[in-house]
Design goal:
The protein is an alpha/beta fold. The protein has two domains: 249 residues, Type I PLP-dependent aspartate aminotransferase-like (Major domain) (Aspartate Aminotransferase, domain 2); 103 residues, Aspartate Aminotransferase, domain 1, CATH 3.90.1150. 44% of the residues lie in helices and 14% in strands. The protein has a seven-stranded mixed beta sheet with strand order 1-9-8-7-4-2-3, sandwiched between helices. Strands 10-12-11 form a three-stranded antiparallel beta sheet, with helices on one face.
Length: 366
């Protein structure tokens, strides 16, 4: 019951066990194209969808490399550990990060973002703003629509890290006007780690082309990917590296299951799981850490006492075989994080977890 990875559906594991396919050729092209076409429905887009054989944070860093680059500037909404990594990425490539900071457990507002962009004196146009949809270190989900609207009015590119929401909360890339969106295989969508879905809009492709002199990478350079797409798509190799084909076959099955369930039905299931979790936690006397205006449907976070936090989580694991997550960095020992994503976002899973939490709390509290 952690915020990813999740336990895949048995059908996904069976797909993973199928014979390994080569990562090019007519048969593979059919599989890859079908997978990316179905993923576009989860992204809510008609833009290009790629699969990158990298960790999720490297897919985020790819956006930094291409849309900021050496000597460039990026605006970052920082409200936790994972959003806090993005300024580090920007500085690592030789760029400047302008942080729009929010209290932990909350997120930025469109007005706050607009104010920071306007402080740049009209120099924000052409630069990129980075937003994490759900910050799993605090359970805070930031609605992107109004924030991206103020960015579009100022000519600012938008990058959405939807790693922790993809498949569990609605993503509307085209409607929101996002230019680069990162999904994830092994959280709410229910696939296997190893091939991360990324959707890239026309403006992001153009920015990467203009920024080519500032991009000091080969395989993270979107221009390298574009060249492969244009030259090698016909024989089923629209990428500049090999691909984990079995992982992608498993991902396709996970997406098939999500589409068969119905995306709206799936999002409602996750919302109900979140409500059930939070109602159960508060009924036991635990206070939620996350601001009620920013509650996520894929992870819930509650406050605990450092004196018994570790023993509580240890009892959950050893007696009930249920793993939940500790807080990160300065929140270690002060909060618990319960993921309800994919197969764990069900009434049965939540009920079992809450029963175990209740028993374990009684034991450690005395």
């Amino acid at each position: 019951m952690i915020p990813g990875p999740t336990q895949p559906d048995p059908e996904v594991l069976r797909a993973l066990a199928e014979p390994v396919l080569p990562h090019y050729g007519a048969s593979w092209k059919s599989v890859y194209d079908d997978t990316t076409s179905k993923l576009s429905k989860v992204f809510g887009t008609k833009s290009d969808v790629l699969l990158m054989p990298v960790p999720g944070q490297v897919a985020v860093e790819t956006s930094v490399v291409n849309l900021v680059g050496r000597g460039g500037t990026g605006f970052v909404c920082v409200n936790g550990v994972f959003s806090g990594m993005i300024p580090q990425m920007i500085r690592a490539v030789g760029g400047k990060a302008v942080e729009i900071s929010s209290k932990l457990g909350s997120g930025p507002t469109a007005e706050e973002v607009a104010a920071i962009l306007d402080e740049s004196g009209g120099n924000a146009a052409g630069k990129a703003l980075f937003l994490v949809h759900t910050e799993t270190s605090t359970g805070a989900a930031t609605p992107p629509a109004e924030i991206f609207k103020v960015c579009r009015k100022r000519g600012v590119l938008t990058v959405l890290d939807a790693i922790s929401t993809f498949g569990g909360m609605e993503v509307k890339m085209d409607e929101w006007g996002a230019d680069y969106v990162i999904g994830y295989a092994s959280k709410a969508i229910g696939g296997i780690f190893g091939a991360q879905p990324v959707s890239i809009g026309k403006a992001a492709w153009e920015a990467a082309k203009l920024n080519k002199p500032r991009i000091h990478s080969l395989f993270l350079d979107l221009n390298t990917w574009r060249e492969s797409i244009e030259k090698d798509s016909s024989w089923g190799h629209p990428y500049p590296s090999s691909m984990p084909t079995s992982v992608i076959v498993a991902l396709r099955k996970a997406v098939d299951l999500a589409l068969a369930e119905g995306l709206q039905n799936r999002y409602e299931r996750h919302a109900k799981a979140a409500s059930q979790t939070r109602e159960g936690l508060t009924s036991m006397g635990l206070d939620l850490f996350t601001d009620k205006k920013f509650l996520s449907n894929t992870v819930s976070v509650a406050k605990v006492q450092p004196a018994w936090s570790a023993s509580f989580r240890r009892r959950l694991l050893e007696k009930h075989d249920i793993m939940i997550a500790d807080g990160l960095e300065g929140l270690s020992g002060k909060i618990i994080r319960i993921g309800h994503m994919g197969t764990s976002a069900t009434p049965k899973s939540i009920s079992m977890t809450l029963d175990a939490v209740k028993e374990s709390l009684a034991n450690v509290r005395g």
